Amino acid sequence: MKKPYQAPIVKKAFLILKAISKASHGLRISEISFKLDISKSTVHGITAALEDQGALIRDPSSKRYTIGTTLMELGKAAYEKMDFKKAARPIMEHLMEQCRESVFLGIRNKDSVTVIDIVESRKDFKITSPIGTSLPLLAGAVGKVFLSRMTQTEARAYILEKGLFQFTPQTIMDPEIYLKELETVRKTGVAFDDEEYIAGVKAVAAPIQDIGAYTPAIWVVGFTAGMEDELIPDIMAQAREAALAINKKLAETP
């Protein structure tokens, strides 16, 4: 099947925006050119156009580019249009009260997961993250949830293509073991992460039905000291019930 035409300049513009967004102090044209292997003249032209539209801001003294307010406005508008967040919010709050840990809502975005809402734990020491944070797709419980929605053949091909990255000593590095985990997720409707993404942190995730173009999931995250082994079965059941409740509420929404 023939691939649709992709405008190279648009792709380069997004690569530049992503690179700048990940740099805490912004990037100069020379740094962008080196990092992305794009000629300085091309980078100069693209950054000038993006600056003109408010997507980038250039510091005249350091000559570094940072993300501009236009992108913030576009991002805010995109999040506000995700109406299913309103349906999920009270259920997330109830889940947080049940398990006393932070509850996240996120969507798959190609090879990553984007956090779109969070209900923070009331504990003094808790796991939190800014809205818009991206997590690797092949990381932790929520990644298992999204990959479990693929067939086993599709998941195997994806894992072999992307490779498993070792985040902690507990990270599953054997593709066959990972695939068995996905089979368990499909059967139980819930995934568990035992310090596989962040040392000292556990997570439980459950899938939510597709909503238009979005593929969401809900997950609970807490420190290992708070999410003791004997509590995990209850948290898994609570997360699964929360996901089902969100699905039911969405089905009732006109």
Summary, kept brief:
The protein has 254 residues and is α+β, with helices and mostly antiparallel strands.
Rg computed from alpha carbons, rounded to a whole number of angstroms: 20 Å
Summarize the biggest pleated sheet. Answer: 6 strands, antiparallel
Tell how many strands the DSSP assignment holds: 8
Shape descriptor: globular
User: Low-confidence parts, pLDDT < 50 over ≥5 residues?
Assistant: none
| Helix-strand string | HHHEEHHEEEHHHEEEH
In the CATH hierarchy, the architecture of the largest domain is 2-Layer Sandwich
Order of strands side by side in the largest beta sheet?
5-4-3-8-7-6
Specify the oligomeric state. single chain
Would you give the CATH topology of the largest domain?
A: Beta-Lactamase
How much helicity do the residues have? 40-55%
Q: What is the helix tally?
A: 9
Number of domains: 2
- Protein structure class: alpha+beta
- Let me know the CATH homologous superfamily of the largest domain: GAF domain
**What number is the mean pLDDT?**
90
Distance N terminus to C terminus? 37 Å
Reconstruct the topology from this structure.
Blueprint: H1 8-22, H2 29-36, H3 40-52, E1 56-58, E2 65-67, H4 69-80, H5 84-99, E3 102-109, E4 112-119, E5 134-136, H6 140-148, H7 152-162, H8 175-188, E6 191-194, E7 201-207, E8 216-223, H9 232-252
Antiparallel strand pairs: 1-2, 3-4, 3-8, 4-5, 6-7, 7-8
Helix pairs in contact: 1-3, 2-3, 5-9, 6-8, 7-8
